[in-house]
Specification:
heterotrimer, A alpha+beta, B mainly alpha, C mainly alpha, A: Alpha-Beta Plaits, 9 helices, 15% strand, B: 2 domains, 4 helices, 21% helix
């Protein structure tokens, strides 16, 4: 699945023609239906990868205005592109994770998922040391007084940003693709909500907005990215993007920063001096469901 | 793995050339310079990694305010402490371990390594690393323990003791955050 | 098209519309009932549009359910038209030749229902245009759903064109041009195979779902489709014989029933093969099959359906295999109902749910359709039956020569 924003010349000219036609139709529709120009523009918006810089600016302005109306707060929707020579990798130390779920909650604070219906991008599984990594004995709803519990270990799961992603293959409209820096992203304004990608994901990493997302305005994180944590509409798929709004500015993802045991490690796979490369070269690393050949960029290791 | 920057005493590596004739002084200066250079290269002793200050218990440091060697005599006898510091529980390794294995008997404001050499509390990781060498190596690489900052730039480390109480180093259990809502409970108009 | 042809076609359309509005009280009652179903379904769907798919019982753990189950079953029904086309056009068997058009009408109705089920299942029906080639962005050839969109629409257009053309020719009392019809009808055979193979592949290709990721899935789909579609058709043909003066030979019906017996037998064999592989190899992937046939961790919701489906299928197979029961009207109709029930359960509860339960992280969420889903599905079945009824209301008189350009004169059948 090709990523990037380049289109062929014929596609560009077809886009321009259709764009003019669409603009004319938009005006007519707005006049006829009494819908605002905003709604018509939203309806006709094309796939993110096919939008020109001007169109992108208009889309951002419209979405920021929508958020202002809905939450009464100013948000900034960034478009930071992928940096050259960067491929993000993630490693999680299973010998250190204690299952405290601070990562899942920090992710919620950072990434503006719906609180009601509840969406959490990170799911922490409680597993038995006896059976090892065997999800038929996994429990994500553990709630003891304290963790870790005797005889158990903990395995958080989130989007693995697979290099051979089964989800991007199956999307019928090309609403999800892999960016050059390795992140698998979703264009929330192009997704039709068919949920084929959810059926395709072997890690259960994708979430769907079954109802209208509800976020208390005070809890909204105003620093967002178009392909990441901007507030999503109803009826579209979303998932972890390794905090694209943070990492493209050089910061760590929220889950990495909050982990109290330092189980989460993140870095640039293309940098031989990064901690992620150190882990891959020196630690016992394994890939979850490796036989499916998804080639993920999320690794589990045993630091001890 | 990048070499951490040497942040030692600010000693110059150039021999002092203002005095034209004293060769012993030049040799001393050179010797000092080499010592610091080696120390810097080995990454030892000088505080070479940006860490927060050691988390001392309130009101106890500096220890030499009581342990001045005059009013308090050094008692190297392994024993169970009663009275002062009797509240400290020590659960660190074998039963034979006790306070003066790490705390320097002659200068309580310092810790000491197996060789007897004293080190500051600010580089206590050197002491931990004597036994936990793999952990120290991983910690320097940023792989053991929490490290924040920027994946492409400056990073902030923590001292071992910021997470592990050196007297009871086992990582304490935490109360887990709330479990996710079960799918059966996700209904229109609010979860149960 | 010349002006004369256009005028003639418009006349045909007008006459057809006129014919749709005329009927006896049973006809009006039936249409009224269907419209009621559609109204109920629409009301439920409006609620879904307003509140989102949260009004269904699908959740992240089981993200496809009743709607997609029905869609899958109905694609099979649409594909089954070739069970008539092959004997009629490949083997040139006259008794079935006359009624092939009815199979194609069934295919059209089933396809309309398929499209409706897809529309109600997606989270953003307002963005449906994204899936159109050129105007939107169709991820062809990588996405199997993109293939499905293309082949389903081609098959729909194909059937619609053939039916309209044949009826129009009958209406104008002209022989149809064989050179137009025959290639299209023959093309519909691989197209029918393709719609159900592509639908099977879209489940089959998902490595994340071991229950579906079995090579046997596409053959299973086809085998079960070829017995379930004709089952509906046979019942409908008998009804048509009663309420209209359409002549349908008994041997046509019995021949189709015989073919259904063989395809049901093959379906049962493929089911056995699937079950053997899972239980004998006894890998971790057994959980899905086990959940279906025996339940897991105290959840037994699907078990009665799984065994019920096989029992119905086996009984139907025996009834339709033995000539004595096949040629008795009771045996035949019971067999048809049993086959329909067996395949309907198998495609819905026996395919979609166990494929998604347990979920990739081992969680079992017990999915049952919500009231909204059932009402919307009922409404869509109402639409399908309405399309079928209205098309037949025009087609049967045309086939009988009662509805032509100049009424009263004898017609020439195709």
């Amino acid at each position: 699945m090709k990523s990037g924003t380049l289109t062929s010349r014929s596609l560009k000219s077809r886009r321009r023609f259709l764009g003019t036609a669409a603009a004319a139709m938009a005006g007519a529709m707005a006049a006829l239906t009494g819908c605002g120009k905003n709604e018509v523009e939203a309806f006709l918006q094309h796939n993110f990868r096919e939008l020109s810089k001007d169109e992108l600016r208009q889309v951002i302005a419209r979405l920021e205005a929508d958020a202002r109306r809905k939450y009464g707060r100013e948000i900034r929707i960034g478009l930071e592109p992928a940096q050259q020579g960067v491929i993000f990798g993630y490693a999680l130390d299973l010998s250190r994770c204690i299952g405290c779920r601070r990562c899942a909650k920090a992710c919620v604070k950072e990434n503006n998922p719906s609180r009601d219906p509840q969406i959490e991008w990170i799911r922490v599984l409680q597993l038995n040391k006896e059976e090892g990594v065997d999800v038929s004995h996994a429990d994500p709803y553990y709630n003891p007084e304290e963790v870790p519990q005797e005889g158990h270990f903990y395995m958080p799961v989130q989007c693995h940003q697979c290099r051979n992603a089964p989800c991007t293959k199956v999307c019928p409209v090309g609403a999800t693709w892999q960016e050059p820096d390795g992140m698998v992203v979703v264009d929330y304004n192009w997704c039709i909500g068919c949920r084929y990608c959810m059926a395709a994901c072997p890690y259960g990493a994708r979430r769907f907005n079954w109802g209208e997302p509800a976020i208390p305005a005070a809890e909204l994180n105003p620093v967002t990215h178009y392909l990441g944590n901007r507030p999503r509409p109803k009826g579209v798929v979303e998932k972890c993007t390794f905090c694209i709004q943070r990492v493209r500015k050089g910061l760590y993802p929220a889950c990495v920063e909050i982990c109290p045991t330092g189980s989460r490690k993140f870095g640039n796979l293309a940098d031989p001096k990064s901690e992620i490369r150190y882990i891959l070269e020196n630690k016992r690393v394994f890939v979850f469901k490796e036989e499916l050949n998804t080639k993920p960029k999320f690794f589990y290791f045993y630091g001890v | 793995m990048t070499m951490p920057a040497v942040r030692g005493a600010g000693a110059s590596l150039e021999p002092h050339m203002s005095n034209p004739s004293p060769r012993p002084l030049t040799r001393l200066g050179l010797g000092l310079a080499c010592g610091w250079l080696l120390a810097g290269l080995a990454g030892l002793r000088a505080q070479d990694i940006q860490v927060p200050p050691p988390p001392f218990t309130e009101g106890l440091f500096p220890c030499t305010s009581c342990h001045d060697g005059v009013n308090q005599k050094v008692n190297r006898q392994r024993r169970e402490l009663t009275g002062m510091h009797g509240d400290i529980i020590l659960k660190h390794g074998p039963e034979s371990r006790w306070c003066l294995d790490c705390h320097d008997p002659l200068n309580r404001d310092r810790l000491h390594l197996a060789s007897g050499e004293q080190i500051e509390f600010t580089v206590s990781y050197e002491l931990c690393g004597q036994c936990h060498g793999e952990k120290l190596r991983d910690w320097r690489a940023g792989v053991h323990g929490k490290r924040t900052g920027s994946w492409s730039g400056q990073k902030q480390y923590l001292l071992c003791v910021n997470c592990h109480n050196p007297h009871v180093p086992h990582f304490q259990a935490l109360k887990p955050a709330a479990a996710p809502t079960r799918p059966e409970a996700i209904r229109k108009g609010g979860a149960l | 098209m010349t002006m004369a042809m256009l005028r003639s076609f418009l006349r045909f359309a007008k006459d057809s519309l006129g014919h749709i509005c005329l009927g006896n009280r049973y006809y009006y009652a039936w249409i009224g009932f269907l419209l009621l179903l559609i109204a109920a379904g629409s009301a439920a769907y409006l609620g879904q549009l307003r509140d989102g798919l949260i009004v269904t019982h699908m959740r992240d753990q089981v993200s496809w359910g009743f709607y997609i189950g029905n869609f899958t079953f109905l694609v099979g029904v649409a594909a089954a038209a070739i069970m008539l086309v092959i004997p009629a056009y490949i083997y040139d068997w006259e008794p079935i030749r006359e009624i092939t058009i009815l199979g194609e009408v069934l295919a059209i109705s089933a396809l309309v229902m398929c499209l409706c089920f897809v529309m109600v299942d997606i989270g953003r029906p307002d963005r449906f245009w994204h899936i159109t080639p050129l105007v939107g962005r169709l991820n062809f050839p990588t996405s199997l759903l993109a293939w499905d969109v293309i082949v389903l629409n081609i098959y729909l257009l194909l059937n619609w064109f053939v039916v309209t053309y044949l009826l129009y020719c009958s209406y104008t009392r002209r022989h149809y041009v064989k050179a137009i019809v025959l290639p299209l009808v023959l093309f519909s055979i691989p197209m029918a195979v393709s719609i159900h193979s592509v639908t099977a592949f879209l489940f089959n290709g998902l490595s994340a779902r071991p229950f579906w990721n079995s090579a046997i899935l596409a053959p299973r789909f086809l085998a079960s489709a070829f017995c379930s579609g004709p089952a509906i058709l046979l019942v409908l043909l008998q009804i048509l014989r009663k309420v209209t003066s359409l002549k349908i030979k008994d041997e046509a019906i019995f021949k189709v029933a015989e073919l259904m017996a063989y395809t049901m037998g093959f379906t049962l064999f493929l089911t056995l093969a699937e079950v053997f592989k899972e239980f004998y190899s006894n890998t971790e992937h057994l959980v899905y099959t086990k959940y279906l046939w025996f339940g897991l961790q105290g959840h037994h919701t699907l078990v009665p359906y799984a065994w019920g489906s096989v029992a119905c299928g086996l009984a139907a197979f025996l009834l339709l295999l033995m000539p004595r029961t096949r040629t008795s009207w009771v045996g035949l109709n019971v067999g048809c109902v049993l086959i329909y029930a067996s395949v309907y359960i198998e495609k819905g509860m026996g395919l979609i749910i166990p494929g998604l339960t347990p979920d990739p992280l081992g969680e079992i969420y017990v999915y049952t359709p919500s009231a909204t889903e059932i009402l919307v599905a009922a409404g869509i079945f109402g639409i399908g039956f309405l399309v079928f009824t209205l098309m037949l209301k025009v087609a049967v008189p045309i086939m009988l020569g009662e509805l032509t350009v100049s009424p009263g004169a004898p017609a020439q059948h195709s």
